[in-house]
Write a structure and sequence with these properties.
The structure is a homodimer. Chain A is globular, with a radius of gyration of 27 Å. The longest helix of chain A has 20 residues, at about 270-290. A seven-stranded mixed beta sheet of chain A has the order 3-2-1-4-5-6-7, sandwiched between helices. Chain A has about 425 residues and is an alpha/beta fold. The first copy, chain A, has helices spanning about 1-20, 25-45, 65-70, 95-105, 140-150, 165-175, 200-210, 255-260, 270-290, 320-330, 335-350, 370-375, 395, 410-425; strands spanning about 85-90, 110-115, 155-160, 190-195, 215-220, 225-235, 295-300, 405-410. In chain A, helix 1 runs antiparallel to helix 2 (about 25-45) and helix 4 crosses helix 9. The first copy, chain A, folds into two domains: about 1-45, no CATH class; about 65-320, Rossmann fold (3-Layer(aba) Sandwich), CATH 3.40.50.720. Chains A and B meet through helix 3, helix 4, helix 9, helix 13 and strand 8 of A and helix 3, helix 4, helix 9, helix 13 and strand 8 of B. Chains A, B: Belongs to the ubiquitin-activating E1 family. UBA5 subfamily. Chains A, B: Keywords: ATP-binding, Metal-binding, Nucleotide-binding, Ubl conjugation pathway, Zinc. Chains A, B: InterPro entries: ThiF/MoeB/HesA, ThiF_NAD_FAD-bd, Ubiquitin-activating_enz.
C-alpha cells in the first residue's frame, strides 16, 4: 500500500511539471489522482514491515520488546531461538486458530497449518476469525490474518483432510521436509499441535507422530463447551493416543455427524481461549526450555478445577509404531541414566547455596526417580481422549495427603500394628 | 461499503443510458467508475448485519448457534439474557482487550470501555490489536474491531484516565447511567472488570465500586509474564482491595515509571489469554448463573499451578465506603438467613433422587455453613494485589485431605478411642 502511494505521488509530481497550463485536459487526470491519493491515505493501514533481527530495545515501534524482556527477567535464556522452530497445527478451528495467532505474535519461526473447512458466521463465537472472512477456507483466512499480524513468521498452509489417504501422504511429507532448518535432527518440525475435534483425526495424528518419532501435544474441548484439556505425547516415553482402550474416547461423536442431524456442539471463546493459552504456553516452555511442561492439564470451567496426571505407554498397545518407539526408549535407558547421573553430579557441585535467593515459587530440581516412584500409582489411569473422561474433582480431592503433619490409614489391622509399635516404645 | 457499491452501479447505469455515443467524453468518467467499482468489489468485505433475535437454528450463517446450544446441553438456562447485561472494562490492554473481544463474541448486551493509551507495535505480542491500528487510541481501535466482529453489541468508549479527578467523575457517572436498562436495580452496569496494570488504578476502581455497591472482578498478570490472577470483589461481603495492608501490593511498580527508565515489563499472549479466559468465563457464570464463580483464581504458568482462596472483609479497613458496605451486609444477615433456609428446604424437598443421573463432575449443592467453617482457616491470608504474592505450590499440596474413603488422624488418643469403639461392636 505504501509503495502504491509513493508511486502515485511521484506520478503527480511529474504530471504537474509537464502540464503547467491549468486548462490542459490532463489536469483532470491530475485531480483524479489527487482524490484517489487522499482516499488511499485516509484508509491505508500502515503495514508492519519485516524485522530482520529481534531486538530488546524498549521503543513503542519494536514488536518484540515485551518478549525479549523475558530474558532480562530471567524467565527465558535465549528468546531469539524461537525463530529456529517449526510448529505444525492440525485444524485451524476454535483452538488451532488461537494457538496459531499466539505463536505468530510470539514470533515463532515457521507455522504449518492444516484444515479443509471454511470460515462461517457460526464460528464467530470464538476468537481469531472475522465476519468478513466467512466463505474463505480457514487456512487462507488464517494466513491472511497471521501474515498481517507478523510478516516475520514463515507460514505454510495445507488445505487438506489428513484422514484421507492423499491428505495423510501430504501431511507426512510436509512434516518430513527439512528445507527450513536442514541441520535439524529428526523430522522437519519441532512440535505438532493437534487441535482436531474427533477421535479419527486424533488417531491419524498419533499414527504420523509415532511413525516419525515426533513429540506432539493433544488438545480438546468438550461438546458442552465447559471443559477442556491438553496432553503431551512423546513416542515411546509417554502413553500414545492408542495406548488406552478406544472405548474410553469413542464416546466423542464426530462433529460432522452432529451437523448432519441439525444439532451442533456448543462452544465458548473463553474455554477455547484458556485451552489454547495452556497449549501454547506449554509449547513455549517445551521449545525455549523454561518451567515445567505439563504431561496432562485438564480444565473444568464450571468449578475452575485443573486436574493433572501422567501416563506411561501400554506394552500391549495396538499401534505397531508405538511398540517400536517403546523398545527404542527402553534400549536407550543406560545412556539416559548416565547423562542423568552426570547432570545430577553437576547440580550437587553447585548446590552449596541457592541459585536464586529470591525463589518466590519454591522451584527446585527434583530427583527423577522420586517422580517415577510417585507416579507409579497413576499408571493404571486411563488416558484422556475427551474431556468428559477427566477424573472428577472429588476423586482428586480424595487422594491421600502426603504431608508430614498427619498419618493416613485405610486398613484397621495395619493401624493396630502401628499403634502397638508406637506403644511398645 | 455495500451501499457505496450499489450507488456507484446505479450511477453507471444512468450514465450508460444518457451517453450512448462511445466517443462522448463522459465515457472516460464511466471507465473510471467501472475501474473503481472493480477495485471496491475485490477488496470490499461482506460485513455482518445486525441480528434482531438470538436464534438456536443450526445454520452456518447463524453467529449464535454454538452459544444457544449451551441451553440444549443443559449448561445455561436462558442464554438470550446475555443481551440484557452491561459490563464495564477498565483499561483495554493485554487482558482487557481480549476480555472485551470474548464478551463481544458471546453477544453481551453492552460494553463500556475505558483507556487513555494508544496502540503501539510493542503491543503486538498480545491478542486483539493489529499492526495497522498502531497510533490509534486503544478505545477507538477496540471499537473498530469489536463493532466489526459483532454489530449487535452496544459499545461505549471513554478515552480517559480514571485516576484523574475529571476522569473519575466521568467514570462514576457512566457507571450510574441506566439508560440501557432503566428497570435495573443498583448501578447501570452488571459487572466491572478491572484490567489495569498498577496499584493506584486498582484503588480507584475499588473506591468507585465500594461507593456504588458494585460487584467487580480484579485481574492481573505479573511483570515477568508467567503468572496471573482473577478475583471477585463484592462490597461488604468479600475483602475489598484496600482491606489488606497496601504494602502487600505496593511492590508492583507503575508501568509508566518503567517505560521512562528505558525498561519494560515482559508479556506473553498466552498468560494474558488464559487470564482473560478465566475472567470472562467467571463473568459468564456470574451473569448467566451457572457453575461456581471463583472468589480467587491464580495461574502460575511455570508449574501449571492454579491456587485458590477466599477473603473476608477487614473490619479495620481504611476505606470508609467498604466499612459502610460491611455494616449493611451484617444488618441484612437475618433476611439472608431466612432466604437461605427457604432455599435449602426446597432443595431437600426435591432431593429424593439425583437431579442429573449422569453427574460426571459430581457437582452437588453444598451447605453454605460447611463452606464457612472450612474457609475460616484461610481468613488471615493476605489478599492478592499482585500475582507474585500467590501462595506457593508446596503450601497448597500440604493441605489435609478430607475424603470419606479414608480416615485421617492427627491425634493418637482420639485414634485409640475410635478403635475401641469399633472393637466394641
Amino acid at each position: 500500500m505504501e509503495v502504491e502511494l509513493k508511486e502515485m505521488l511521484d506520478e503527480i509530481q511529474s504530471l504537474k511539471q509537464s502540464f503547467p497550463d491549468s486548462s490542459n485536459p490532463s489536469i483532470e487526470k491530475l485531480h483524479f489522482h489527487v482524490k484517489r491519493l487522499a482516499d488511499l491515505a485516509k484508509s491505508a493501514p500502515v503495514w508492519r514491515s519485516k524485522v530482520k533481527d529481534m531486538s530488546a530495545e524498549v521503543v513503542d515501534s519494536n514488536p518484540y520488546s515485551r518478549l525479549m524482556a523475558l530474558q532480562r527477567m530471567g524467565i527465558v535464556e535465549n528468546y531469539k531461538r524461537i525463530r529456529e522452530f517449526s510448529v505444525a497445527i492440525v485444524r485451524v478451528g476454535g483452538i488451532g486458530s488461537v494457538a496459531a495467532e499466539m505463536l505468530t505474535r510470539c514470533g515463532i519461526g515457521r507455522l504449518l497449518l492444516y484444515d479443509y473447512d471454511k470460515v462461517e458466521l457460526a464460528n464467530m463465537n470464538r476468537l481469531c476469525f472475522h465476519p468478513e472472512q466467512a466463505g474463505m477456507t480457514k487456512t487462507d483466512a488464517a494466513v491472511q490474518t497471521l501474515q498481517d499480524i507478523n510478516p516475520d513468521v514463515v507460514l505454510e498452509s495445507y488445505t487438506l483432510n489428513i484422514t484421507t489417504v492423499q491428505g495423510f501422504e501430504t501431511f507426512m511429507s510436509s512434516l518430513e521436509n527439512k528445507t527450513f532448518r536442514p541441520e535439524k535432527e529428526g523430522s522437519g518440525v519441532d512440535l505438532v499441535l493437534s487441535c482436531v475435534d474427533n477421535y479419527e483425526a486424533r488417531m491419524v495424528v498419533n499414527q504420523a507422530c509415532n511413525e516419525l518419532n515426533q513429540t506432539w501435544m493433544e488438545s480438546g474441548v468438550s461438546e458442552d463447551a465447559v471443559s477442556g484439556h491438553i496432553q503431551l505425547l512423546i513416542p515411546g516415553e509417554t502413553a500414545c493416543f492408542a495406548c488406552a482402550p478406544p472405548s474410553v474416547v469413542a464416546s466423542g461423536v464426530d462433529e460432522r455427524t452432529l451437523k448432519r442431524e441439525g444439532v451442533c456442539a456448543a462452544s465458548f471463546p473463553t474455554t477455547m481461549g484458556v485451552v489454547a493459552g495452556l497449549l501454547v504456553q506449554n509449547t513455549l516452555k517445551y521449545l525455549l526450555k523454561f518451567g515445567h511442561v505439563s504431561p496432562f492439564q485438564g480444565y473444568n470451567s464450571l468449578k475452575d478445577y485443573f486436574p493433572t496426571m501422567e501416563m506411561r505407554p501400554n506394552p500391549q498397545c495396538s499401534n505397531a509404531a508405538c511398540l517400536e518407539r517403546q523398545k527404542e526408549y527402553l534400549l536407550a535407558k543406560p545412556a539416559r541414566d548416565a547423562a542423568k547421573a552426570k547432570m545430577e553430579a553437576e547440580v550437587l557441585l553447585v548446590a552449596e547455596g541457592p541459585l536464586h535467593a529470591d525463589n518466590e515459587w519454591n522451584i527446585s530440581v527434583v530427583n527423577d526417580r522420586e517422580i517415577d516412584a510417585k507416579d507409579t500409582a497413576s499408571l493404571d489411569t486411563l488416558p484422556e481422549g475427551l474431556t468428559r473422561e477427566l477424573p472428577s474433582a472429588d476423586e482428586f480431592l480424595e487422594l491421600p495427603a502426603s504431608g508430614p503433619a498427619e498419618m493416613c490409614v485405610d486398613d484397621l489391622e495395619e493401624l493396630k500394628k502401628q499403634l502397638e509399635a508406637l506403644n511398645a516404645d
